[in-house]
Amino acid sequence: MKQRPFVRIARRIIQKREIMKHSNLMFGKDNFVMVKYYLETNETIEDYRHHDTLKLLDYNMLRASVVETEVVPADVVQIYSTIRVRSKSGWAKTFELVPPYEENNKNNRISAISSLGAKIIGLSQGHTIQHGLPGDIVSLTIEKVVQNKKRVKLDIPKETFEEILSNRKKNLLALTI
User: What is the distance between the alpha carbons of residues 71 and 31, in angstroms, rounded to a whole number?
Assistant: First the structure.
C-alpha cells in the first residue's frame, strides 16, 4: 500500500526530532554539581592536552541544559552510565563512566574528567566525538548508553544549586561579550 505524501513527511519530521532531541549537552543537577566540583578542585593537571579537554568540558557545561536528575533521558551519558562507542573502522569499546576516585582502566571504569569521559559526558546515543592524540585522532560514535542502578546523589540546598546555576549564566554572558 502506497503511503500518502503527508504521512511520509510527518514520519521524516518525527525522525529528525528524535535525532535532534538531545542536540546539546544535558546534565542531571547531581552530575552537573559533581563534575563542576572535580573541575574546580583538579588544579594540578600537568598534561596540557588533558587540561585543554577539561577547559572544553567547562565551556560546554556553561551551555548545557541542567535538569532534575530524574528526568534525564535514558540515552544521555551520565556518571555510572555504561557506554559503548564504535569507530568507523569497526573498533568498539564498552566502559562505565565513574567519578575520578573510582577510575579503574583494567575494569573498564573511565573517569568523568578523563580525556574520553570529559568529551562524552552529557551527550546522548548517536553523537560522534573526535578522540585521540594529534595525528592519531579517531571518530567515535556513542552506540549505546545503559543507565546503571547506582546514581550520583548529592544533598545540596536548592539555594546552593541556584547559586551555581546563576554563576554559570554570568560566565556564559562574559564569554559572549
Answer: 13
Question: What is the total residue count of the chain?
Answer: 177
Q: Residue 129's domain is classified under what CATH number? A: 3.10.50.30
Inside any domain, residue 3: no
Q: How many Cα atoms occupy the beta-carbon half-sphere of 29 within 13 Å?
A: 16
N-terminal to C-terminal alpha carbon distance within the chain? 56
Predicted local confidence at residue 28, as pLDDT: 87
Highest mean pLDDT among 5-9, 16-20, 86-90, 169-173: 86-90
Residue 47 belongs to domain spanning? 22-176
Considering the domain boundaries, does residue 9 fall inside one?
no
| Mean of pLDDT values over 6-12 | 55
Query: Of the spans 36-40, 49-53, 157-161, which averages the highest pLDDT?
Result: 36-40
Strands 65-67 and 26-28 turn out to be parallel
Is pLDDT larger for residue 46 or for residue 105? 105
For residue 93, what are the β-bridge partners?
Answer: 85
Q: How many independent structural domains does the chain possess?
A: 1
Measured N-to-C along each axis, helices 48-63 and 29-41 cross at an angle, to the nearest 10 degrees, of 140
